UniProtKB/TrEMBL annotation:
It comes from Champsocephalus gunnari (Mackerel icefish). SMART domains: PHD. Residues 527-577 form the PHD-type domain. GO terms for molecular function: zinc ion binding. This is PHD-type domain-containing protein. Keywords: Metal-binding, Zinc, Zinc-finger. CDD domains: PDDEXK_lambda_exonuclease-like. One of its GO terms (biological process) is DNA repair. The keyword Membrane does not apply. The keyword Cell cycle does not apply.
Amino acid sequence: MSSDYISGLEGCALNRYRRKLELCGLSDCPYRVPADSWQNDPRKWPPVDFGNIDVYLLETPGVHTREAMRNYKALDSYKLLESGWVQTVRHIIPDDTTLTVLRADVTPSFRVNEPPHPPWAAVTQRGDVVAAHCDCKAGLGESCSHIGGLLYKVEMIVRVGGARDPACTDVLCTWNEASMKGVQPARVADINFYGDKPKEKVVANNAPARRADPQPVSSDGFEDFLVSLLAASNPVMPVGLSLFGSTSSNFAPKKAVVPSQKVPPGLRSLYRGVEGFKSLDKVYSAATQTMKLDHKDVERIGNVTKLQSKSLVWYEQRAGRITSSVSHSVLRTSTTKPSQYLIKSICCDRPSKLKTTAIMWGNEHEQVARQQDAEGAVSSAHSDLKVNNCGLLIKREQPFLAASPDALLACSCHGMGALEIKCPFKFCEMSVEQMCKEKDSCLDQNLELKESPVLHPNATSMCVTGASHFLVWLPTAGHVCSVFPHQEYALTSGPASTAFREGHIRPELLFRKVELGTEQSEHGNKQGHCSCGSADSVPMLGCDDKKCTHQWFHWACVGITKEPRSKTWYCDKCKSSNTKRKRQRRQ
């Protein structure tokens, strides 16, 4: 700035400025010092810190208060530093004093095209600020925002290490260089907020991709490539090589393995469609003859289906037969209006999609239970006992009855029998004795099988095999029960199963009314019974309200894990409807 600044002051302002120079021990105004005398060397600066700045700004008249200094980053002086308006800081050490005078040009934040203000500050060697001045209107008060911006920049440079000896990789005075020069005002839409490198990346990403023209490969080179690929792919070869003449010979198809044992067709082969309605007597007579099996047919089906759920033949032969898993539902359903879902599940040959935690846990531990407990505990009560895998067992006299026990027992003392294994997930952390104390346990206090629906799969197995054992397996121990013929079940299951088969199963096998949708339920629910709208799956529970819009529900959807003990059960919607009806009647 002009060196005649002091000559422009008058009266009180001039006297105050001269006393300030005398306080600092300066014989001449800092504005009269030549420009080449000011040095740019932060290593010679005093160690100014926040404490020195706070003491000076609070003790001098101005806008700086204790509350304002607590949030110093919100001050205008600190914002000048953050915005880059404080230019390069330079210093001089006059001969007639020990103080260091610091000076920098500070651009006005709202008048960027006007000349910058040149504040200066005199600092002791310990960092104490003795006096400061600025040529702005508030500068005579020694604590304007420009002075604060100068002091905050000095503190920042000292704090980050710019005032110490630089390392070999540092550049002298880098921290002190001005970060912004020659700023021109412009509209926000015209301001470039990015540097050159980000713009280069954007241009490179938006540039159209260049694709090289494919070069043709010679036939010899391509053949060599196929041979090298085949050699590197052994023992597993990519099937794509079978399309080329030079390598296709390695993919000669193998001869189909024809099963040595031919099984009779499943009951779904009885389907006659709409044409069957023209001669029902002939169709029923032919179906009865087709269902008959001899001893060899039953044996072949049992041998071929030993993998059970992993065998497609097992699903095919189960379709249309009342198995142990659905025997209890057959006895409970109405004979005049049976469950459409039950008919569909019996006559369907597709695998079930139901995979609950309890089912998966039981399937995973079934083999462990058989090896740990079945072969040990059962063998102690039998001689020459053999535990074999079991397929689908069909009763020859009643071919619509079948069972798939978990294992087949054979001994010299009792002959052949079935073994049912139950791995209850709910009691997996209990002992057998603790499980027997639970209400929903299948065993009573005497470790005997309770009179419950659990008996029905074993009873069906006994109808087919003649004897049955029941194994309850837990990780801690297992318990084997001998299941004896259930007279009441035998008396009721036979006629009921026969009536259900003649009245509903055989017509469904012949005409598939339920499966093809030619016979809908009275409520027109075509997509599924449960309120969730998903496909039907086992197990399901029926609502006893005739006006229910769904009739059947998944156990998981209604929040139950076992079959209710009560003879009647109503869904939540029907319960609320019945309650409202009762209230209306009372009123």
